[in-house]
Amino acid sequence: MNPDLVSSPLFTDLYELTMAAGYWEHGLEAEATFSLFLRAQPQRGYYVAAGLAPALDVLENFRFDQGDIDYLGSLELFKPSFLAYLHGLKFTGDVWALSEGTIFFPNEPILEVTAPLIQAQLLETCLINILGVHTLTATKAARCVHAARGRKLIDFSLRRTQGATAGMAVARSTYLAGFEATSNVLAGRQYDIPVAGTMAHSFVLSFDSEAQAFEAYVATFPERSILLIDTYDTLGGAKLAIEIARVMAAGGKQLIGVRLDSGDMTALSRKVRGLFDEAGLPELQIFASGGFDEYGVADAIEQGAAIDAFGVGTKVGVSADEPYLDLVYKLVRYNGRDVRKLSPGKETLAGQKQLYRFKGADGCFKEDIIGHRSEDLPQSEKLLSPVMTAGHISQNMPTLQEIRQHLNGQMALLPAACKRLRKPQPFRVSVSPALTAQQQPR
């Protein structure tokens, strides 16, 4: 089981289990379809589907073990006969979903589960949680990649992500969105993601002088040293880095570059670049970290920063400007009958659905139509595909490299106005006449 997953079926809200007990008590065990989608949120022009493979892993291994049953029994809420039923339960249903790395928009189906009602109900919390954190950070990361205009980005978020599982999810999601590496060593091992890191100020402070610290570091890592130069005086640190680089070059080695972590990094980066160029060392790279996200990266580049790569941490790891997704998982069909919710502001679309995407004459995305799964809308691409059948994964899951390539292609086709960081243009999403006609009051 992947380390970023909570594998127990007790990773759920209590009311999922109390509803399941009610269904079981009253014989509601017919086939149901639940649709997972995102309610409208104001700050994003698009979202990136992520987390499908980890979610399917949970579904395929969904089991109540004896310890789970014993704990539920200790709550004195459930009848022994219901607990015996749970002990033999596994997921036997079907799942249709968007491929990871696919661009989508609010109100569109991301995933639909069809299974006996109790099975499908019990999956609500874990699916919202897993797909939510992965999609949230993949979307934030994709915006950073777009803002960086080809400059490298590295995930530095682990120490401030909201828990270990979130830290693993963020490393995976930022990498599939286009980041070059992560500081998270466990994620590097688990997901085969390149790992990267330099030094902290504590390393510099531990030596009698900054020069001694730099010399010690490059002696330890002569092939991949990046020096943190702002512990005392940034420009003074840059001049020391030049001396170190020259000594290394004389020995056939090369200093990779330096990192800035404080101050006016736009202005400092230009001054440091000037020192490097004057010294005949244009190959030295300048890395910057400290409070960056897509807005900070975009502003630094717009102001002419001489920064080659950015370490982005807290604001991406917690998606600071939009720290949650209003994902919902709603019953849309039960026992052969399409059903819908009519609560004001929270209406749902009944029936099993498909998402159809149309392109314009320029090849870019033009419009999405939410339709019934059985429809055939000419000249469109069907975005939902069957990924689980009878409780087993039915597709070969793409690698993270393949997801990166898929998302890169998606971003190239997304209209520029939808990619704006501020006040993006809403993408056109409509409902097909056939699906509209199927919506009944109940």
Instruction: Give the neighbour order of strands across the main sheet.
Output: 13-12-1-5-3-17-18
CATH topology of the largest domain, what is it called? Answer: nicotinate phosphoribosyltransferase
Number of structural units classed as domains: 2
Low-confidence stretches: 1-5
Helical segment count: 16
Average pLDDT level = 95
Q: So, CATH architecture of the largest domain?
A: Alpha-Beta Barrel
Q: Indicate the percent of residues in helices.
A: 25-40%
Secondary-structure content class: alpha/beta
- CATH uppermost class of the largest domain: Alpha Beta
Calculate the terminal CA-CA distance, rounded to whole Å: 41 Å
* Largest sheet descriptor: 7 strands, antiparallel
Q: What is the percentage of strand-forming residues? A: 15-25%
Radius of gyration: 26 Å
Number of strands: 19
Outline: elongated
Name the CATH homologous superfamily of the largest domain: nicotinate phosphoribosyltransferase
Outline of this structure?
The protein is an alpha/beta fold. It has helices at residues 14-25, 52-60, 66-74, 80-87, 117-122, 124-148, 164-176, 185-191, 201-205, 210-220, 234-250, 265-278, 294-302, 314-317, 400-413, 433-438; strands at residues 31-38, 47-48, 94-98, 103-104, 109-116, 152-155, 181-182, 226-228, 257-260, 285-289, 309-312, 327-334, 337-338, 353-359, 365-372, 381-382, 384-389, 392-393, 429-431.
